[in-house]
Structures are given as structure tokens and as C-alpha cells.
Amino acid sequence: MTAALEAGLPPSMVERVTLIMDAFERRTTTLTLEQVTAGTGLPRSTAHRILDQLVQVEWLEHTSCGYALGARALRFGGQDGSHGEIREAAAPVLQELFLRTGMVVHLAVLDEANVYYLDKVGGALAAALPSRVGGRVPAHTTAIGKALLAWQEPERVDEITRGLLVRRTARSIGDLGVLHQELSRIRTRNGLAFENGEAVPGVACVAAAIRGHRGAVAAISLCGEARTAGLERVAPLVLAAAREVSRQLFPELARPQRAQRAPGPWQGRRLHSVGGTA
Question: What would the CATH number be for the domain defined by 78-271?
């Protein structure tokens, strides 16, 4: 302790752990060991040892891009604390999707076997849809839920949906094997999920997941009347919207991708025409 005081370092382990945890300012912050060392002033060996211990008890998670908040830390945020940043990053994108398409736009996260709606933007049709901010719907019955389930481990899907594949309409999936086939098709479509009357008769939706270090963190969907929705036409916009929110939340994941491919339909955070490609 004397040596630590002389070196100007926090004398207690609790203070050092607090220094490290405070370095993760946002829910999506990812830091390398060097960044943690520079930000806290702790010796590299000390920081590395504490980081490893925090990973072991799930306060932090070690990803390919560095260290991020772990499951135990995120649980302390609750619904509002852990999802406020997602809502903030997605809000302008959701509004623009609505303005460009006139369809109902949803933002949701996975909550066990359900989707939990974080936001909803829309016109006249929005009032007719039973979805609401703060509401929950069985994930397997919605495009937005299937988009989220598609990036879960198959064993996890089995665990959370076992005995809960209730049919909301005649079109709903009620068999686990059929659900896995559908999730596989979603992955082959770059994550685009579709549904037609599976949650609400006469309503069709297309959705794509917002993905980060831990897989899908949320998803965006567009919904409209099945007879006029034209989902194939607007699907590229949904995929591009999800990628834009991912870029806002996880810029360190987007940088190498932008260097390797031509710009997509998002340019300066503005959408091109509906006929663009994702």
C-alpha cells in the first residue's frame, strides 16, 4: 500500500476496479488493454490482472475487439438503463424510415421468448397495430423477433421457446423444427426476416437485427398492410437501417468493413431511394 501511495496509484483493490469500470462510459464501449491502461493510469500488468478477474465473474466480457461490459454489469442497468443508448442511436433512423416508406417502424430487443418494444413510429396504421412501446409479443410470431432469434445459438432458441410456440394466427409457426428452418433461411438472406399475418392477420413485416460484439442487440422492422406492403421493395432499407444503427453503436466494428466495400444506401445518415441496395 505504501508503494502504491508513493506511486500515486489508488491504494485499494476496490478503487482500482472502480477506475477500470468507470472507463466503460457507455453500454457499447469497447476498450483494448492499452486504452484501459492509458485511461486509468494503472500499470499494464495490474490492469491486465484486474480485467481478467472481471471477465471471470462476468462484470466484463473479452471480445475480439477488446473488453466490453459483461452480462452482470448490463443487468444492473435494467430495461431503461441498458436500452436507452440503443433508442437514442436508432431514433433518427426510425423516423427517416417512416418518412421514406409511410410504414410502421418498430425497434425491439429480445426478452427470453418475447420481443420487448423500445420504440414505435407510424401513421394511421400504427394505431391499428396492437404493438406498443414497453409491450411484449412472442418472438417467433413476428419478423422482428425472428430476426433476433436467427443470431442466437440453436440450443438457446430451444431453451427459451420450448413449450411456448403458441400460434397467434393460423399462419404462426407452431413447430420448433419449422422455426429452425425459418431462422436458417433468415441467415442466408443476410439477416432479413419476413412475416405475413403470423402475428396480426392482414399485416406483413420485414425486419433485420442490429448486431454488435455479442450478436444481435436489437432489431428494426417495417410493417404494413399485407396486400400493399411491397416488402421486397423496402427490405434493403431495413437492412441498411440496422447496419447504420450498428455503426453508430459499434463504430470499431464498422471501420474495416467500410474500407473494403463501396458505400451502401446510407450516405451522411440519409437514405437513398427505396429502390437502393443494402
Answer: 3.30.450.40
